[in-house]
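Quarterly update from the structural biology core.
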Amino acid sequence: MMPLARIDALSKRFGPGCPRCAEATGPEQETNRCPHCGTVMACHEVSFELFPNEVLGVVGESGSGKSTLVRLLHFEWEASAGSFTLMRRPELAQVAGLFANGAEVSGNLLCQGQFRQRQLRNALMGIVYQNPYLGLRMNISAGGNIAERLLGAGWRHIGRMRARAAELLEKTEVPVDRMDEPPRNFSGGMQQRVQIAKALSNKPLLLFLDEVTTGLDLSVQAKVLDLIRQLRDELRLSLLVVSHDLGVIRLLCQRTMVMKHGRVVEYGLTDQILQDPQHRYTQLLVNSQL
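Predicted structure, tokenized:
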């Protein structure tokens, strides 16, 4: 099967960089900060493929680079190096100019201008953040938050946007009669469900979930995860799930990448990684959580 997306040697550094940054940072050095120039290597040469209808997990401790990876792929931060390409699929025919002259592979999306990246993000992607305040306008109604996303995707008919918002809130188990209330009135779990509804509003092919259950009560976590599983099966999305919780990764993901200090240290089938981890850092994670 052809992948939907291919990421190759994706890197992000914060600082001027020097010729010794790569060798002076990483899991073996136990740091992502270069001792020679002070540059932080947040991600270094991360490569993977994401397949249609697949859930790929990214796991690691704080500072491992997993959230940086999401910000780069969602075009929120500019990458220092690397490529992000899409393979031709019928679902991508809606995006004009994505494949030049009948090519089977798009150009490097990381090299597109900001306006073009915004178009691609609105057409193809959705994201749910750990902190709902990053993904929602708390003083605007839940329905208004969804409508804002639809406007970015080219919707203009108010009645249809309102109907779409009601449909998504019902699907994500948010009472439709609260559609006109601002998310600041909602519980943390309900705010996350509104975020999910907003992220799904443009029917994305790629959905990024960044620590969506962190900070929620266990019972609320279970409900949110059950909702994500239902939506995954119903909508056949490709998901990139970032978490430090191996229980979340085991529940949702077919394949998993383990990151430490900006590098991928292990990559493979989730069951295989959790049952027979090869890298000592993965072994430590598994032994401490499962």
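The first strand starts at residue 5 and ends at 14.
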